[in-house]
Every structure is written in structure tokens, then in C-alpha cells.
């Protein structure tokens, strides 16, 4: 790896989008420090996927941080008493996790200060997504401003930048770009309720968006689905 490359912290959930973002950061010449957050979600399969993806794609260091958002509840992804929807819903769905991306970016920002990085990558998308408010450009712009006034590095003249290379891309465009970059999507887990082996339910919003992306892109879907 180029020792002169700039360091970047890449949020890596273990899903399709974040794996693509990691590949894009590497192509741009960044030294990636990858960060996954175990936040009390329904399964650990995506955390295990993040380790596989980080290892295969040359992460300098992969960090898994743990925060118990399940203690707050309020989301189908952290509260097992709330069912994950398997049909499209209107409005912001119950799979929205309150303040999740605010927390993730805050943790990434803290680690960036420690490792000496001023570039952060996150795989938010505002085209083919579930309508989450913390996936929109307005949120990213606001957080970037915060990063530059709330940190020692920012106050001392560093300029933090939040990279969102997928924000205006369709899922098909993301899959096509990731395939070009050599992402092995079989290693990733996107399902909201994957089983212990990482097999996807095929019915949740995330599964529907992922499957449609491969279909529109005309590419084979390597996702492992649970048996009916």
C-alpha cells in the first residue's frame, strides 16, 4: 500500500453499500481504516461479514465498536418485540434506528482524530433507500459542519470531509460499480433479519432493494437466501 496515501475511516457495516464504498475509497488511493458498530441489532451476521470484507479488501485496521442501542429500543432492528415489515410501508419505516448514523459518524470522527485522518466515508443513499432522515444530503452537510467545530483537529485547522459516494446512485448503479471494482458481494450481508449463518430472509425492505439492484443491473445475485 502507498505509504503516502491519505488515511480515511470507512464505516463498514458488512452490507452491500458499505463494501462498495470501501472499494471506492481504495480506488481513490486512501488507506482505509474500517469501522463496524455492533449496536444491539437483531443479528451478528453483518458484523462477521464486515470482518470478511475488511480482510479481503485490504483494510489497514478493522475496528468493531459496541454500543447497546437495544437498551433504547424504538426500532424493529433493536427491539425484537417490533416486527420487521415484509411489505412496503409508507413514511419512515419502523426499521429506522433513532440517531444511528449520527452515532456512527461520531464514533468514526473520534477514531479519525486518533489515527490522524480527516476523511470519513459512509454508504448513505438517498435514491434507492428506506426513507431514513439520516441518509439525506442535509444530514451529511450538517454533520460535516459539526465535525469541523467540535474537534481539536478541526479547531486547529484540519478540514474534515464526509464522503458519500453512493448518495445519488441507484442500487443498480451501486452494484454495477462495485462489480467493476471487484467487490465480492457474496461476502456481504444486507438483510435486516438474517439468520445466524448470514442467509437473507428475501422479504424485508433491505432484501427487496438489494435483489432489485442486481436484477436491474443484469447481474447474478450471489445472496444466500433462507429456504421457504
From TrEMBL:
Residues 1-23 form the signal peptide. Binds 1 zinc ion per subunit. ATP binds at residues 12-22. Keywords: ATP-binding, Ligase, Metal-binding, Nucleotide-binding, Queuosine biosynthesis, Signal, Zinc. It is an enzyme of class 6 (ligase). Its EC number is 6.3.4.20. GO terms for molecular function: ATP binding; ligase activity, forming carbon-nitrogen bonds; zinc ion binding. This is 7-cyano-7-deazaguanine synthase.
